[in-house]
Design a protein that fits this description.
Blueprint (H helix, E strand, L loop, with lengths): L1 H5 L5 E5 L4 H12 L3 E6 L2 H13 L4 E5 L5 H15 L4 E4 L14 H29 L2 E6 L12 H21 L4 E8 L5 H7 L2 H9 L13 H8 L10 E4 L7
Parallel strand pairs: 1-2, 1-4, 2-3, 4-5, 5-6, 6-7
Helix pairs in contact: 2-9, 4-5, 5-6
The chain binds NADP nicotinamide-adenine-dinucleotide phosphate (NAP).
The site of NADP nicotinamide-adenine-dinucleotide phosphate (NAP) has 29 residues, from helix 2 and helix 7.
C-alpha cells in the first residue's frame, strides 16, 4: 500500500540545481524512493559526484551540465535527459541564487541576474519539460519557492519577488497543464543551513534573531525536504495541484 502510493520505481526524475544543498538532498531522496534521477547544474564535477552516489545506491543516474540562465542549455538539458531515460516523469526546479542587498543599493544587473535564474529559468525549464510531459500525458512538476515569497525580510527584495512569482507561476501552470494530467506544485522552505545562507547565518546576531522567530527552535537540514518531494512526485499527490507546501519549523506562522 505505502509502496503503491509513494514508490517511484520505474519513474525518471530531473532535479535542476542538484550539485549541493537542498537539490542534492532531494535528488538522493527521489532515488531512495526508486526513481532514476538526472542531476543538473553548472558544476560538472559536483553533479558527477551526486550521480555517482545515486548509482552506488543501485539506481540509474545521469549528470547534465546546465546553466539555467541560458535557454539553449535548458532545451539541451531536457533533450539529453529524454534521450538517456526515454522520458521525464518528475521535474524539480530548485536552482537558485540569493544576492543580499538593500533595495536602494541593489544594481539593476543583480536584479536581472536574480530574476533570470530564480524566475525565468524556472519558467523555461517548466516549458521545455512540460511540452514533453504534455505529449506523454502525465508529469509532476515541483518548484522550490521560499517562505520569503510570502514574508518580507531586509536585503531580499529581488529574491523575495522572484519567489513570490514562483508561487503564482506554479498556480498558473497548474491551471494550464491540468488538462494534460500534469500536477504542478511548490515547496517553500524556511531557513536551511546550506551554502546559500552560510554567510548570513554565520552572523551570531542574525542567527539568534531567526532562531527566535522559528517555533521549533532550530534551522532545517536538507534531508527534511525529502518526504515532501517524494509525496509531490508520487501517486499520493495525484489530486493536488497549484499548491505550495511550507516546511519552515513554523517560521511563517508567527
Ligand atoms: N537554504 C535555505 O534556507 C532556502 C530557503 C528557502 C528557499 N531556498 C531555495 O532552495 C533552492 C536551493 O537552495 P540551497 O539553499 O540548496 O542553495 P545552494 O546550496 O546555494 O544551491 C543552489 C543550487 O542551485 C544551482 N544553481 C544556481 N545557479 C544556477 C544556474 N544558473 N544554473 C544551474 N544551476 C544553478 C547550484 O548549482 P551550481 O552552482 O553548481 O550551478 C546549486 O545546485 C534555491 O532555489 C533557494 O532559493 C533555500
Amino acid at each position: 500500500m505505502i509502496e503503491e502510493l509513494f514508490g517511484l520505481e520505474g519513474k525518471s526524475a530531473l532535479v535542476v540545481g542538484a550539485s549541493k544543498g537542498l537539490g542534492k538532498a532531494m535528488a538522493l531522496a527521489l532515488a531512495g524512493a526508486g526513481a532514476a534521477v538526472a542531476v543538473a547544474s553548472r558544476s560538472q564535477m559536483l553533479i558527477e559526484e551526486v550521480r555517482d552516489e545515486i548509482i552506488a545506491s543501485g539506481r540509474k543516474a545521469f549528470a547534465v551540465k546546465t546553466d539555467i540562465s541560458r535557454e539553449e542549455d535548458i532545451i539541451g538539458m531536457a533533450r539529453r535527459v529524454i534521450d538517456s531515460f526515454g522520458r521525464i516523469d518528475i521535474l524539480v526546479n530548485n536552482a537558485g541564487i540569493y544576492i543580499p542587498a538593500m533595495a536602494l543599493d541593489m544594481t539593476a544587473e543583480d536584479w536581472d541576474k536574480t530574476l533570470n535564474i530564480n524566475l525565468k529559468g524556472f519558467f523555461l525549464s517548466c516549458k521545455a519539460v512540460g511540452r514533453h510531459m504534455a505529449d506523454q500525458k502525465s508529469g509532476k512538476i515541483i518548484n522550490i519557492a521560499s517562505v520569503l515569497g510570502k514574508r518580507a525580510a531586509q536585503t531580499s527584495s529581488a529574491y523575495s519577488a522572484s519567489k513570490a512569482a514562483i508561487i503564482q507561476l506554479t498556480r498558473s501552470l497548474a491551471l494550464e497543464l491540468a488538462p494534460h494530467n500534469i500536477n504542478v506544485n511548490a515547496i517553500s522552505p524556511g531557513w536551511f543551513e546550506t551554502e546559500m545562507v552560510e554567510e548570513e547565518l554565520s552572523n551570531p546576531k542574525t542567527r539568534k534573531f531567526f532562531l527566535k522567530k522559528t517555533p521549533l527552535g532550530r534551522f532545517g537540514v536538507p534531508e527534511e525536504l525529502g518526504g515532501a518531494v517524494i509525496f509531490l512526485a508520487s501517486k499520493a499527490s495525484d489530486y493536488m495541484t497549484g499548491e505550495t507546501i511550507t516546511i519552515d519549523g513554523g517560521f511563517s506562522i508567527c
